[in-house]
Amino acid sequence: MTTQFPKKLMLLGSGELGKEVVIAAQRLGQTVIAVDRYANAPAMQVADACEVISMLDGDALETIVAKHQPDYIVPEVEAIRTEKLKEFEDKGITVIPTAKATDYTMNRDRIRDLAHHELGIRTAKYAYASTLEDYRTASEAIGFPNVVKPVMSSSGKGQSIVKSAAAVEQAWESAIAGSRGDTQRVIVEEFIDFQLEITLMTIRQWEGPTLFCPAIGHRQERGDYQESWQPSTLSAAQEKQAQDIARQVTDALGGAGIFGVEFFVTADEVIFSELSPRPHDTGMVTMISQNLSEFELHLRAILGLPIPNIDQLGPSASSVILSPEQMASVGFSGVAEALLEPDVDLRLFGKPDARPYRRMGVALAKGTTEAEARQKANAAAAKVSVVKLS
Ligand SMILES: Nc1ncnc2c1ncn2[C@@H]1O[C@H](COP(=O)(O)OP(=O)(O)O)[C@@H](O)[C@H]1O
Ligand SMILES: [Mg+2]
Question: Which residues are annotated as catalytic?
């Protein structure tokens, strides 16, 4: 018997990546309930139904799962009560990619230890600390410069590059302030002077082999991505090395769906950094660069639908549109000017309010070379301004 559709998906997290997952799901006639902690979040604007709860609140999750009875729970963010996901999984709801994967990747330490200790994969040298005193010791052991991050954080929050022992105390303060939970645990990492950093979008299927998108190059500032491009300048041998590592780590997590696997690339090494078991922000470039975007691939993998081909359509880039300041209402200017250029497109996320550096949209472009695609995407993003609605 073949599977009957529609299925009901509950999306935990309703940002811009979730919005595209919902659109992909709607196009294939599925039903989606979008969940986030604030109303009118991007994915809610295109979903069949929405719920506003704290996803860290287990009882609240229980209530909405009982109410909607989804076939699939699809996490879009890290900040979720992941023990609850295990309970839902045990009751027969499919958690994407698995409850284990969401649990392992919620904090930086478990996934890092899995990769390094259990699978023997090369990572930056690292150590953990939970007090300032331990942090000093760890920092000396790793050496300078090093990178310190709260174990529980994302988007570069609380992260600093520490150049000498004199800067340790301040880095500790900001790591603790930037930590999402109430733990004080930090990871101290060897600073990798990479030539390129990449995301390898990796697709695990319920049946069928693990698939890969061509690697995506990206540039980060303040811990957030600024621009990404595909294809990257990785050699065939480096691409193969990254794929082998990504397959190994995602096999250990199991399930189905897309994973964003991050690597640092130096002259002679491909170094595993971290992984998110869902679409990746740098992967937004695939909305213009591939026949199937990361969101469409995620959905096909979730639903067990075939993925016969992933075609890369030539040099392509994405560039983010950030808010300059706090805004209680959000508008855009320069949209028509940005779209004047051929092979340029925009996604404006529809976030209801803004704060400094909040990502409000993205420009997408194709070019004849990587340089041209990046230049076009950056120029288009620069033409769009986030403005207070008057
Ligand atoms: N050990 C490191 N060496 C050099 N740069 C790093 C290191 N760790 C992180 N970075 C830089 O900071 C960015 C964000 O760090 P990451 O570990 O990916 O955290 P997040 O979960 O916030 O994305 C990376 O994409 C990279 O540019
Ligand atoms: Mg990252």
Answer: 154, 156, 262, 274, 281-282, 359
Percentage of the residues of the chain whose pLDDT score is greater than 90 = 95
User: Taking residues 183-212, what's their average pLDDT?
Assistant: 96
3-state SS assignment for residue 370: helix
Specify whether the CB–CB gap between 278 and 256 falls below 8 A: no
pLDDT at 156: 86
Question: Which bound ligand lies closest to the C-alpha atom of 123?
Answer: 1
Within 13 A of 87's CA, how many CA atoms are on the CB side?
Answer: 10
How far, in Å, is the centroid of ligand 1 from the Cα of 322?
20
Kindly report, as residue ranges, where domains of CATH 3.40.50.20 are found in the chain: 8-95
What is the average per-residue pLDDT within 309-317?
A: 98
Does the structure show a pLDDT above 90 at 155? Answer: no
Contacts of 6 (CB under 8 A, 6+ apart): 29, 30, 31
The model's confidence at residue 1, banded by pLDDT at 50, 70 and 90, is low
Which ligand has the minimum distance to the alpha carbon of residue 224?
1
Domain span(s) for CATH 3.30.470.20 in the chain: 196-387
CATH 3.30.1490.20 spans which residues of the chain? 125-190
Does residue 252 have a pLDDT over 80?
Answer: yes
Task: Return the amino acid letter for 35.
Answer: V
Q: CATH classification of 125-190 is 3.50.50.60, yes or no?
A: no
- CA dihedral defined by 150, 152, 154, 159, rounded to 10 degrees? 0
Q: Which residues line ligand 1 (CB under 6 A)?
A: 124, 147, 149, 154-156, 189-192, 197, 220, 223, 262, 273-274
Third-level CATH fold of 196-387: D-amino Acid Aminotransferase; Chain A, domain 1 (3.30.470)
Which of 106, 218, 219, 220 for mutating ligand 1's site (highest number of atoms within 8 Å of CB)? 220
CATH tag, 8-95: 3.40.50.20
